[in-house]
Here is the input.
Amino acid sequence: MPSIKSKLPDVGTTIFTVMSALATQHKAINLGQGFPDFPMDERLTSLVSKAMTDNFNQYAPMPGWMPLRDAIAEKVAILYDAGIDAEKEITITPGGTYAIYSALTAVLRPGDEVIVFEPAYDSYIPNIEINGAKAITIDLTHPSYKIDWNVVREKISPRTRMIMLNSPHNPTGAVLEPYDIEQLRSVVEGTEILILSDEVYEHLIFDGIPHESILKYPDLLERSFVCFSFGKVYHCTGWKLGYCIAPGELTKEFRKVHQFNCFSCHTPSQVALASFLQDRNSYESLAPFLQKKRDYFIELMKGTSFTMHHSSGSYFICASYDMISDEPAADLAKRLTKDFGVAAIPLSAFYRSGKDDKVLRFCFAKKEETLKEAVTRLTKV
Ligand code: PMP
Ligand code: GLN
Here is the structure.
């Protein structure tokens, strides 16, 4: 058998797959991998069925179904006052993760450096490294998980090609504030540094905090890829559909990668979403809906020995467990799944070094009855 030299020698199987498999094996309630257990909007499933029956079953155009791109341009104009050209600046992708990979692949060259804040969604660093570039990691400050912009300034070098941001943040639920935008501006101004802004949880932001989208800031947008996920916001993670908004020159390079990888995405879902997005309530209702779940979960968790962190967005909340044990988070996550029937994700999996602040991440995008049963079990820990 011919031998191969791994391009990703340090990469194993993603923690989400590992923990979901363990949850299935032990019939545990899965508060690990981020996906809702409640049904998605029936109007959207009807629209997809209709699109199929109406024969929208062939390839969509390579950059995406035009009415969907128009609907996105209209939506971001309403929300962020962004003047986006649907023809030249929006590309529909099979999910947000793919959009991030394509953006990185479009611009990174061997030797380039990319600033990544940890804890970080686990695809970022492998996506950088497979392109021969180097991830320069900066720890968010535990437990508030804010960016220390002075450290960012120290880590910038002539090789810095990109800064990756994620707000609302997975796994911590932290969000960027206007101060962060100011700081970001002062760091990148006059440089060749690009920005990748992962905004897949854009609508899942709580307590009335406005989402600091890069789309609001034309001077930052001119150097940015901004990535979104329909799966994450419309409770259909299995659809694997998202999009990337970037200025024309960046989008041109993005599409060079996209057209020879996926080429185009599932047509009926795009046709359905083009109509669904016309209804503003389809996205405006999301924040209060998820905030209620967050608050319900926090209230229930008061009856356990976990110490809850704050979550301003996403559908995750973290918890420390110093009153329970001092074992590594990865061990506790497995033990909870096997012995108590509740799966969570260890935060250490979001650090390349495996740094362990003894924190677990719980997904609260679940039916109330699921959360209630899960917490009943966690009370025994
Ligand atoms: N970024 C982050 C931070 C995420 O949590 C997710 C969810 N998996 C994604 C991107 C992309 O999601 P998807 O590829 O499922 O659209
Ligand atoms: N983003 C999801 C999470 O953090 C999982 C996505 C995946 O499984 N790749 O749980």
Observations:
- The chain has two domains: 15-40+284-378, 58-279.
